[in-house]
Amino acid sequence: MSLAAICALATGCAGNHHIAPAAEAFSHPSLRVTWLTPRSPADAVVLSRWRAAVGQPLIANFAPAESPPPIDRLTIVSWNMALGEGDVAALLRTVQADHPNTQIVLLLQEAFRGRDDLPRAPVNGAFARRIRGKSTREVDDLAKALGMSLYYVPSMRNGAPALSREDRGNAILSTLPLENLAAIELPFEKQRRVALAATVRGIRSDGTRWTLRLANAHLDNTSVKKVWVGSEFARMRQARGLRDALAGMDPLVLGGDFNTWFGFLDAAYRELNAAFPGTRVTDGRRTFLGLLRLDHLFFRVPGQWRTEFKRAESSFGSDHHPLIASIAF
User: Fold this and answer.
1) Mean of per-residue pLDDT scores for the chain
2) CA-CA distance, 318 to 251, in Å (whole number)?
3) Distance of alpha carbon 17 from alpha carbon 248, whole angstroms
4) Strands 194-203 and 179-185
5) At 115, is the pLDDT very low, low, confident or very high (cuts 50, 70, 90)?
6) Which of 51, 168, 184, 226 has the fewest CB atoms within 10 Å, measured from its CB?
7) Strands of 58-61's sheet in order across
8) pLDDT in tens, 38-66
9) Contacting residues for 206 by C-beta, under 8 A, at least 6 apart
10) Which ranges in 209-257 belong to alpha helices (H)?
């Protein structure tokens, strides 16, 4: 099959990836979440069906109320926790032992939440097949137990509304307060995907103030067209939309599960890597079941900041290994 034919079959060739601020927020105004969504009318129609079946974002601050000490370093972890299969508490203990006296931000994919106030019978609502790990700890309970700030936005209903009172999506947990919250609906391919962005800030020991934007994303692994090779173009469309939505949000660290079946050669990876010139990969080990490099971190930060990241040795019960980064301001 020619490349042109593949592009025609796949939904994800270069066009129709543009994202813009939503005309109105898709969550309660009191939450003060800024929404961005695809401009494509076709995307808008299908995304509205998936949106109708999920609950409101979760925002909470379980971190200590006192002002943090001077912050010269920050540790950032990106991890697909596999719907509760992953042991986040064990991961956090390991990170704290390896990076003592630093603040920590967790960019988590496949977090879940159960709520009785989720829509019971959404009209024409769309949902994903229910999947569930062995843990019953929901993301808000997890953040409270760990004493961390929480920002969670569901991407999809976790099972049919008649059978499930759960949704699932991305979450950011932080030992620092989270500010300027944004939710970014990606171009639709197979399932609704919502990337998150939030800001953390601090003061170095020399009195210099710093601010950092953090983004967390999870791209589709296939396209609704079910063309295996074409799925790369589907991810590329989502990656381009995400890239454009994050433009100008500097300094910025982006992490997530990008489902890059072709690793560092995947079109989605190459699109994002080109937009994050501060990214330096020194540990290229596979992150998914020892087979594929699906997970990545990208950096767009001042040149005087020192960054490094590596894959964790343990998967902590998930089918993905975490990526652990350190930034010295």
Assistant:
1) 93
2) 30
3) 17
4) antiparallel
5) confident
6) 226
7) 58-61, 149-157, 166-174, 103-114, 73-80, 323-328, 306-311
8) 999 999 999 999 999 999 999 999 998 88
9) none
10) 231-245
Q: Which residues pair with 73 in a beta bridge?
A: 328
Name the residue type at position 248: G
By C-alpha distance, which of 5, 17, 7, 64 is closest to 238? 17
Given the DSSP bridges, would you call strands 209-218 and 73-80 parallel, antiparallel or unpaired? unpaired
Indicate the residue type of 105: V
Least confident of 76-80, 163-167, 321-325: 163-167
Give me 281's structure tokens: 């990969």
- Cα 238 to Cα 254: distance, rounded to the nearest angstrom: 14
Say yes or no to pLDDT of 7 above 70. no
Report the pLDDT averaged over residues 2-24: 65
Question: Is pLDDT of 227 > 60?
Answer: no
Residues in the chain, overall count: 329
Angle CA 75–76–79, to nearest 5: 140
Predicted confidence (pLDDT) at residue 223 exceeds the cutoff of 80: no
Q: Which CATH class is domain 3-328?
A: alpha beta
Where do we find the tokens 């939450």? 31
* Cα(248)–Cα(230) distance, integer angstroms: 30
Q: What angle do CA 29, 31, 37 make, to 5 degrees?
A: 70
Alpha-carbon distance of 96 to 73, in angstroms, equals 13
CA separation for the pair 213, 235 (Å, rounded): 23
pLDDT of 67-112, one tens digit each? 889 999 999 999 999 998 999 999 999 999 999 999 999 999 999 9
Q: Tell how far CA 236 is from the center of its chain.
A: 16
Burial of 323 (0-12, 13-18, 19+ CB in 10 A): buried
- Rounded to whole angstroms, the Cα distance separating 144 from 83 reads 18
Find, among 312, 318, 281, the residue nearest to 297 by Cα: 281
The CA-based angle 218-222-224, given to 5 degrees, is 115
